[in-house]
Amino acid sequence: MNVTGKDSPRTMYEVAVIGGGFAGSLLAAVLARNGVRTLLVDGEQPPRFAIGESMVPYTAALARVVARRYRVPEVEHLTSLKAVQREVSARCGVMRNMGFIHHRAHLRQHPGEIYQVVNPSVVPPVPHLFREDIDAHLLGVARRYGADVRTGPGARVGGLRIDAGTGVALRTAGGEEFAAQYVVDAGGHDALLPRELALREEPTRARHHSRTLFTHMTGVTPYDETPAGRLHDRPSPWHQGTLHHVFDGGWLWVIPFDNQPRSTNSLCSVGLTLDPRKHPSRGLLPQQEFDQVLAQFPDLGRQFALAEPARPWTATGRLQYSSKRVVGDRYCLASHAAGFVDPLYSRGLAHSLEIVNALGRRLIDAARDGDWSTGRFQYVEDLQQALFDTHDDLAYASFVSFRDFELFNAVVRTWTVSTVLGALAVENACAAYGRSGDDSVFRDLEQTRHPGSPFPGSAHYNALGPLTRTLCEEVEAGTRTPRSAADRIFGAVREADYLPPSLGLGDPADRFFHSTPARIARAARWVRTDAPDEVGALLKGAMGGLIRERRRGVRRPG
Question: Which of 64, 109, 135, 436 could tie 299 with a disulfide, CB 3.0–4.6 Å?
Answer without folding.
Answer: 109
